[in-house]
Each structure stands twice: as structure tokens, then as C-alpha cells.
């Protein structure tokens, strides 16, 4: 039970906007569940998590908004993944990731992972520790958007 509660708390922590900009962030986490409908079919629904168990599919939504009066430029949004969550990808494919706690970054296909036994191998989605989006275009005052990534509870 403690693991589920502490995981639920960790899941609601927002990422960070890195830059001298006034970009606000908020985040939500949902559990994706199949629900039986009265007509015998099933539907996928997103629910607020109360507890999560291994195998639960999670959807993380990070909303960003320029709350300043000037355009925000050259900022990034970084989200660490809770240790109990395996990365399953993003909705847009524009992210870069880290498999070493945020020390190095790149597209997953370009990264390698150093195992505990000293073995180096291509990085896998399950190795991802952080997800980052970099904005190289100006975000006008008052505008914003959302970033979505998925994970599975280990």
C-alpha cells in the first residue's frame, strides 16, 4: 500500500521549464483502463489514479503556458520518470530522453546504456529516466499547449 501511495504522489509532480522565461507548468497523470459498456463492448477511459498496480498504463499530460508579457524563447520542459514507471513513448515524437539520470540527452535510438556489470548495449525504453522537449521557437504571451507521454507501472 505504501508503494502505491508514494507512487501516486510522485506521479503528480510537474516537470520544470528551464530558461529565463515566464512559462508556467502543470501536470496531470491518468490511469488508462478498459471499461465494459452496457452494450457488451469495451471503451478506454482515463481516470485519476487513487492507487496503481504493476501493469497499469499511465498517461502523463504536461500543460505549459507563457504567463509573461513577452514571447518566451529557447526553453525546455523536462520530466523525470518515477522509478516505478517504464517509459512507453510520447504523443508527438519530438522529445529527447536520458537514460543516465539527466546527464546526457538524445533520441533513444542514439543512446547506449551502461549496465551494472559494465556491459554497454543500445538503450531501451525501459532505461529512460527523463523526458525533455526543447522549444526553439518563440511562444507568444498568453499561448501554451500540452505534452503527453505514456508509461507502465513496473
What this model shows, in words?
There is one protein chain. The chain has one helix at 2-11, and strands at 16-18, 23-36, 42-47, 57-66, 75-80, 85-90, 96-98, 112-114, 120-122, 130-135, 144-153. A hairpin with a 5-residue loop joins β8 (112-114) and β9. The longest helix has 10 residues, at 2-11. The chain is built from one helix and eleven strands; from the N terminus they run αβββββββββββ. The model is unreliable at 1-6 (pLDDT under 50). The protein is mainly β. The radius of gyration is 17 Å and the shape is flat.
Question: Briefly, what is this?
Answer:
This protein is mainly β and 154 residues long. It has one helix at 2-11, and strands at residues 16-18, 23-36, 42-47, 57-66, 75-80, 85-90, 96-98, 112-114, 120-122, 130-135, 144-153. It is flat, with a radius of gyration of 17 Å.
Q: What's the arrangement of secondary structure elements?
A:
Blueprint: H1 2-11, E1 16-18, E2 23-36, E3 42-47, E4 57-66, E5 75-80, E6 85-90, E7 96-98, E8 112-114, E9 120-122, E10 130-135, E11 144-153
Antiparallel strand pairs: 1-5, 2-3, 2-4, 4-11, 5-10, 6-11, 7-10, 8-9
Amino acid at each position: 500500500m505504501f508503494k502505491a501511495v508514494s507512487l501516486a504522489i510522485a506521479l503528480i509532480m510537474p516537470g520544470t521549464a528551464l530558461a529565463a522565461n515566464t512559462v508556467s507548468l502543470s501536470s496531470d497523470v491518468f490511469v488508462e483502463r478498459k471499461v465494459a459498456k452496457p452494450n457488451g463492448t469495451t471503451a478506454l477511459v482515463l481516470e485519476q489514479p487513487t492507487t496503481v498496480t504493476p501493469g497499469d498504463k499511465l498517461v502523463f499530460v504536461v500543460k505549459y503556458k507563457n504567463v509573461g508579457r513577452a514571447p518566451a524563447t529557447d526553453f525546455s520542459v523536462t520530466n523525470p520518470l518515477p522509478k516505478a514507471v517504464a517509459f512507453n513513448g510520447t504523443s508527438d515524437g519530438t522529445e529527447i530522453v536520458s537514460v543516465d539520470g539527466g546527464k546526457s540527452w538524445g533520441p533513444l535510438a542514439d543512446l547506449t546504456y551502461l549496465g551494472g556489470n559494465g556491459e554497454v548495449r543500445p538503450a531501451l525504453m525501459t532505461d529512460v529516466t527523463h523526458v525533455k522537449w526543447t522549444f526553439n521557437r518563440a511562444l507568444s504571451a498568453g499561448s501554451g499547449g500540452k505534452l503527453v507521454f505514456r508509461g507502465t507501472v513496473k
